[in-house]
Amino acid sequence: MERQARGSGPTAIAGTSATRQAGESRAEDVAEQDRASQLRRRLGRADLRAVPETRRALRELLRGWGSTGRSETAELLTSELVTNALVHTDDDAVLTATVSPSGLRVEVRDSVAHRPRPRVPSADEATHGRGLVLVESLADTWGVRAQGGGKVVWFEMGAGAA
Description:
Elements: E1 2-4, E2 13-15, H1 27-35, E3 37-43, H2 50-61, H3 68-87, E4 93-100, E5 103-110, H4 131-138, E6 141-147, E7 150-158
Antiparallel strand pairs: 1-2, 3-4, 4-5, 5-7, 6-7
């Protein structure tokens, strides 16, 4: 049985067999890595036009991956991470989305070290404050890791049904 290696992206497969040596690759692992596709985009500081542009680019990347509902959910969650990075930081951000037959990993890197946390929005916040609650609810896994002077907020989704 195989499982995804957390924090390494959906194309890095960690074997559960004790007989495999570190660095040893299997033909299936290499074949899956070859089928992986990636979207990488620099997001300009406070450029909210990047949100719909990112959704369109991700939709193209996900064409033929997973069910329609999974792809739409991935677009929504990506929009939330991109919007957070653009609204809550004063610098550029970088989006990386990697898709393979087994899953999708989306990362948004920014230059602010403050770690975001999901919070229940108050009634007077209208449509604000719900992004990470959505990510937490709809992604298979998600997290935040420090990187340089900033952070990477990421989520993963498998290609199968929710």
